[in-house]
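Issue 218. Parser rejects a valid record. Input:
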Amino acid sequence: MISGIPSRLFPALLLALGLALAAAHSAETRPNFILFITDDISAEDLGCYGDPVAKTPHLDRMAAEGLRFDRAILTISSCSPSRCSLITGRYPHNTGAPELHTDLPEGQPLFPKMLKDAGYYTALSGKHHMGKNADPAFDKISKGKGPGKEGDWVEMLRERPKDRPFFFWFASTDAHRDWQINDEAPVYDPDEIVVPPYLVDDEQTRQDLADYYHEVSRTDTYAGKLREELERQGIAGDTYVIYMADNGRPFPRAKVRLYESGIRSPLIITCPGRLEPGVSDSLVSVNIDLGPTILELASVESDPRMQGVSLVPILDDPGATVRDYALAEHNWHVHQAHERMVRYGDWLYIRNAWPELQSMSVEQSPKFPAGKALWDAHAAGTLNEHQRDIFLLPRPEEELYHVGDDPDQLSNVAMLSENREILDKLRAVLDRWIEETGDTIPENPTNDREDPFGKKYPDHQRGTFPGEERGATKINAKGPVRDE
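Output the parser choked on:
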């Protein structure tokens, strides 16, 4: 007998102690995660993605020392549906929250909740926008502080429980309109701005873009502050930091749209010592692939309802391929819409169910400077072909672009005979995805909330969601992933 313990029980106690110590050691060595979700930032607006104007030194360093993804495609370019897709790892029409300002229904998988159940400390700070049914995924929820809601992030990182691995969902409101300028980021000279060819190059547009870049740079400031705190705590090498956006920049022909300016997200992942530096042009479906990736890195079993695939093979080898297709949707976002997109290699294909509708968004209305410049020039009859895009009626039922040759997607080549084979292929891919994932064109869709000038319609009401008529929230099929 040892200290009152019968000797016959001693081997069992030693075994139990050994298992407990092993479990504790496993918990200590499990990686931490910071998911930094920015609001309304296009990939091409960061220095590390080639922007000649952007001042983003911390993100540029993060990209140089980590892995930068050049083909990270979102499932939707719209605020709350994008976030609901991300937290569930499911396509927007499969989440039950495919339109703006709709709450995530109860019962959907939540990958941070899976981490929490596996012993992780999980917290959200900043923009939420998913509804109360996402709350159980987090031990702590904060509204954030400051103009971009990033002001309490370092404090939360410092005051976290030290006996558990952690997952932080840090969601800024930078760079969402309206602009809020402060001393946490540089102020840009409008004369230095490079104006996209589909916007009017005038003083008000340049100032609008300059103010946007200020908020982009503020996200860079906080990326630097988080890194500094991780290094101070000595855990930078145990923490994956992931930087991404929910949708593209809040400007005409970007946010909500299915062109790269709206649907391509910055995606930078770093973890010194665990992740080798590199650049990957492998195709990624950001919203649905990140959840399975984080769960695999944390050694937590994924939920079979999640429709994405893990990116761990790409983290091990930037040249690896985990998918050949990325698919996305454009649903109601203040204005009625139903478009679907397939990205395959350098090809981008869009199908529009309602080409008779003007492709509107709040950001391209005359309420904001860049939109006002377009509307003023439209009234004056001075717009060129590319600038007239948002006023085009009817719109094409199908659009096809070669992104390598046409990075702004300005030349629709769907009708060229030499593209018939790729057009037919992508039509078939989209048809298969629609069928397998239960997507639909609603017979009673949500109508416009307001006119282009912001005047509210008295008869606005929610309609039937895409996928609702086929019970898409109960469908778990991934749809096409690899080329057959």
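Fixed in the parser; the record now loads. Residues 329-474 form one domain.
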